[in-house]
Amino acid sequence: MKTNQKKAWLFLAPTIIFVTLFSIYPILRAFGMSLQKGSLIDLTWAGFSNYQYIFHDPEFWLAIKNTILYAVISVPVGLAISIMLAWIIFSKVKHKTFFETTFFMPYVTSTIAIGIVFRYIFNGDYGMLNFILRCLHLPAPDWIDDPAMSLITIIIFGIWSGLAFNIVILMGALRNIDPNFYTIADMYGASGKDKFWRITMPELVPTIAFLLTMNIIGAFKIYTSVYALFNGQAGVGNSGTTAVFYIYNKFQIVGTPGVAMAATVVLFLIILFATFLQRKMMKKIGEN
Amino acid sequence: MDDNKFVEVKNLRKVYDNGHEAIKDVSFSVKKGDLVCLLGPSGCGKTTILNILAGLLSPTAGDILFGGKSVVKIAPKDRHIGYVFQNYALYPHMTVLQNVMFPLVVGKQKKSKTEAEQIARKYMELTQITDLAEEKPGNLSGGQQQRVAIARALVQEPQILLMDEPLSNLDARLRLKIREEIRSLVKSVGITTLFVTHDQEEALSIGDKIILFNDGVIQQDDLGQNFYLEPNNYFVANFVGNPVIDNFKVTKTADELQGSDFTIKLAELEQSRFKRNLPDGEYTLSVRPENIVPQEDGVLTTQIDDVELIGRERILKFTHDDVQARSLVNLESTLRRGDQIKLALRLDRIFLFTLEGERVY
Amino acid sequence: MKKLRLGVLFSYIILFIFAIITVFPFIYMLLGGLMSFQETTSIPPTLIPHHFEWSNYAKVFARAPFARYFFNTVLTASITTIVSLFNSLLGAFAMVNLHFKGKGIVQMVLLSLLMVPGEAIIFTNYNTIAHMGLLNTYIGLVLPFLTSIFYMYYLQSYFGSISETIYKAAMIDGASDWEYIWKILVPMSKGGLFTVGLLSFISGWNSFLWPLLVTNEDTMRLLNNGLSTFASDAGSETQLQLAAATLTVLPILILYFIFRKQIIQGVVRNDLKG
Questions:
Q1: What is the pLDDT of residues A67-120, one digit of tens each?
Q2: SS3 call for B40
Q3: Minimal CA–CA distance to C272: which of A90, A169, A283?
């Protein structure tokens, strides 16, 4: 067999053509466009003015603030709940697949459709959630129409949709832990708590690192769930705007693709930085 | 065409991408119809050679001739070879019959389905797997899978059959049975066969001749018994033979070989067995355990560490110069652990090696 | 002993609360879609409709071309799935079984592209499609998704677990690469291909942002875009919104319940290796 089988390129051709056209080119093009101004059909050189523009745009800062807040709250909370649930299902429950199947449902369903349901449940007047809260004599805020609540509503919805993927992946990782570890721990009389913190958690570190990366990347891309919750808007008075919302708005509605691409580049760099930071952190934890 | 050189390998060399030199200048030839074993420890390059012969790897340098024609540039499928893989590589989603038929129904010279089935069934009969035709490989025992693999290899009626450790996945008893079957099968078909193994006993029992490799170099290319009686070098002497050979450090002086506590007069050795004149210095004296035996006037005094029973013989284990050594005695021997004994060497059967491993006596 | 039982009980309570939180929106969606308008806005909220208003569904179909949305969605999701599966299959085969110069570079580029969020390139892709004059066409809807690095990577790990001697054996048996792919690789990887196909179909079904960008004609809309437009148009008629949402979710949910094992295993498998 030849060491350089040129026919390989033939098999890879469709992939390479499509990837070049719709993955590599758009990335380069996004960088290029971020330095241009004008409408899509009439782009001219603009230097860094687009970047200057977004950095002076309060709406952009609100979008970034919302996106980062969303990421740093929903990701750790969601992950913690997922770990708890996965551990309970794995260690305490007989019908593991039943619960796994149940918890995974949100992963396969359309965010738009389920967002409509949440909008209904969150309704300030006749929504199910506030009904329950009132019954428990808890404050019942206006989840959808109060600008101060927008981000919290988005976070709750985000955590709800994110559990599915995390739980299933964590279950897979838990199943992969050698059961002998637990047998030996039992022989030494370890308690359930000991077993969780001394065996389960260390074994889960790579999986948690992976989920953190995926969740953070996902969180920074948040768009559809906001769109669904607020019926195409970014909350009342744009209170729940996010980075992708901002980009979409500047690109499609306002018609300033250069500004949109500058924001895209910034978002992209933030994601890269967050992933990098998170990898470093997990590596440290893994070493300890 | 020279039937003695039906398969000819010339100055073959293989360097992998990572820089590892798996084969270093290897040349050998195989006679038409012979069954030749490529023997060696794992990592010695024997499977690499088989893969190069099959065309699954390309050599870095050198040439390969089948029936006098170079095949280096020819694709595996056009080399007229059959190949039996260590893990059999049966297609798990096909039945036995489909597996055996597969080579006949793909590629450029496709045969009709009925013709292919006819040929396949002929070889399945030969390998006695007709009853398994409709089974999937997953339901078969190791021995049965082995037969399917052989039938699939033979069905294209290749000129050369290549087998890569075909018995290593079988249990000990089955291995003995199947290796006899393989030998009688390839002999009855008359196909030239190269058989890779790491098991010296297997090689000795099945091969018309054996080529022993180590570190990508041929150590000895010879008939089976010669590996035992006339090893080329220190590696061969130590690789072949069970129990393994005993090695003693000796220093040669003008007229003696001096061990740590024994001496042998050079005059007692057979002068014709010296390969060359030896300068004084250090050598390794090696002797097979059956040629070092307890005897009243033995030169070597030692204490027995342990006695092991192996079928019709016993191994006396002792330590000499901090190295374990063995002596092979009859089952009837009454010597026991802790006994002091004297051992004598059969001087016409000992070997002397330089410290580099070259055999000099 | 008693303390231990309490712990288990506590765990069960947490588990059930979250299970209910997870499932409730789905059930409420099904039920809400069958309520009357008054029931959806009543205080306290209605849980079980007094009378199943099946006519809600008739109204949904009458108000918006949901049949057309279904057709569009099934068509584009199927085309994306089949073509991207085909391309990934060929690519993954080359990456796993063939040796060629530049393989390491290709692998590196693909892996780093895997890190690029789709949202960062979707707008420039819109630009490309617009330039090609493919807005409001099926081709425009599917073109950027006809290859998937993610699924190719998944298949690579799947094919990589097949012993390489199988490929070698096929070469010696005289099979061409094409024959190897279709007679051996595909039948041996049916499970993996099927899972990839399912996941790809589901994500095609649920796609939203891309079709939102490249279509603005009602006849070219996909289900989720149709649904969101319908939700705006139907205004306060919550029961119709919920019926339409049910229409969107139910087919995928049924598919999910039938193939839950393959889907979950598929997701776990590819992501543990990532």
A1: 999 999 999 999 999 999 999 998 888 888 899 999 999 999 999 999 999 988
A2: coil
A3: A169
Residues C220 and C141 sit within 8 Å (Cβ to Cβ): yes
How many Å lie between the alpha carbon of A1 and the closest alpha carbon of chain B? Answer: 5
If you average pLDDT over residues B263-289, what whole number do you get? 88
Flag if C174 and B87 touch (Cβ within 8 Å). no
Cβ–Cβ under 8 Å, residues B54 and B112: no
Asked if C168 is an interface residue toward chain B (Cβ–Cβ < 8 A), one would say yes
Place of tokens 């012969």: B53
> What pTM did the predictor assign?
0.86
- Contact list in A for residue B76 (CB cut-off 8 A) is 1
Please give, rounded to a whole number of angstroms, the shortest distance from the CA of B291 to a CA of chain C: 45
Distances (CA, A) of A126 to A120, A233, C44: 8, 21, 7
Supply the DSSP symbol for B157. -
Under DSSP, the state recorded for B326 is E
Nearest to B202 by CA among B149, B240, B154, B233: B240
| Residue of A12, A100, A117 lying closest to C242 (CB–CB) | A117
Out of B51, B106, B108, the one facing C173 most closely (by C-beta) is: B106
Partners of chain C (3+ Cβ pairs below 8 A): A, B
| Coarse DSSP helix, strand, coil percentages of chain C, rounded to the nearest 5 percent | 80, 0, 20
* Complex ipTM: 0.86
Q: What are the chain A neighbours of B58 within 8 Å (beta carbons)?
A: 1-3
- Interface size, chain A vs chain C, as Cβ–Cβ contacts under 8 Å: 281
**Over residues C115-143, mean pLDDT:** 88
pLDDT-derived band at A2, boundaries 50, 70, 90: low
Q: pLDDT by residue (tens digit) across C64-80?
A: 899 999 999 999 999 99
Distance between CA atoms of residues B113 and B104, nearest Å: 9
Picking from C86, C91, C120, the nearest residue to A30 by CB comes out as C120
Cα-based angle A170, A173, A176 (whole degrees, multiple of 5) = 155
Q: What radius of gyration do chain C's Cα atoms show?
A: 23
Share the mean pLDDT of chain B.
Answer: 91
SS3 track for C13-72? HHHHHHHHHHHHHHHHHHHHCCCCHHHHCCCCCCCCCCCCCCHHHHHHHHHCCHHHHHHH
- Asked if the bond preceding C65 is cis, omega within 30° of 0, the reply is no
Looking at the DSSP bridge assignments, the partners of residue B221 are B211
Q: Select from B132, B136, B163, B174 the least CA-distant residue to B54.
A: B163
CA B72 to chain centre: 25
CB B249 within 8 A of CB B321: yes
CB B80 within 8 A of CB B159: yes
| Alpha-carbon span C44 to B124, nearest angstrom | 78
pLDDT band at C1; cut points 50, 70, 90: very low
Q: Please, which pLDDT band fits residue C272 given cuts at 50, 70 and 90? A: very low
Rounded (5°) CA angle C180-C185-C187: 115
Choose from A7, A10, A11, A130 for mutation: most chain C CBs within 10 A. Answer: A11
- Strands B192-197 and B160-164 turn out to be parallel
A254 and chain C in contact, CB less than 8 A: no
Q: Does C102 touch chain B (CB under 8 A)?
A: no
Interaxial angle between packed helices C118-131 and A25-33, expressed in degrees from 0 to 180 and rounded to the nearest 10: 90
DSSP codes, B42-84: TTSSHHHHHHHHHTSS--SEEEEEETTEE-TTS-GGGS-EEEE
Structure tokens at C238: 């919550």
Chain C: closest CA distance from residue B310 (Å): 38
Q: Is the pLDDT of residue A1 over 60?
A: no
